[in-house]
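Supplementary Text 2. Reproducibility record for the structural model of the 201-residue chain.

All settings were left at their defaults, and a single model was retained for analysis rather than an ensemble. We include the record here because the model underlies the residue-level annotations in Supplementary Table 4.
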Amino acid sequence: MSALQHYTPRRWHHVLEEIEHDGGPAGEPLRKAAVAVVVANPYAGEWVESLEPLTAPSAELGTELGRRAAALLGLPVQGYGKGGIAGIGGEQEHVVACVTTIFGDAFRDAVGGGAAWISSVTKLGGPGTQIDIPLAYKDEVYVRSHYDSISFRIDDAPRADELLIAVAVSSGPRVHARVGGMTAAEAQERRSLAAEGANVA
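Retained model, structure tokens:
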């Protein structure tokens, strides 16, 4: 039985990358994972004013995609992102409707939490269109070391009457990140100090 009750999935797609180095010394490998689901677009070929029927139940998309992505990564999630492609019979707005805050909050919960907004990309395209999902640190978007992306394409999706909805997660910074900026450790320290200040107040 499908994990989705309000969408009609045709297929799931899972991608896992493990990067040992990028020409420099080998260190802690970076893992990046992406999971996509291809679902029917009930509004392909027609105009409707309200897209609430796509948005309202989208927590189930965020939960299931997040659960699968975290399991595929196999390590604590440090970075995340989301995105999607609307088939050419639909509108970009159709896929945007599926990845709003309702989706994002459920996705965060499924991957172990996160305080930062989730980097996102949406577009219109046909079967085989590549999607590049941006990644950023889950607790502070200004942590430069975690700016990254993961790319994939599905040969037969999205069809004209479909939506491709995807999430991505990463296990850490880029393998040779060295351009400065706030570190993940500094971001966590700021969060801890802010929480202590709030408790004292």
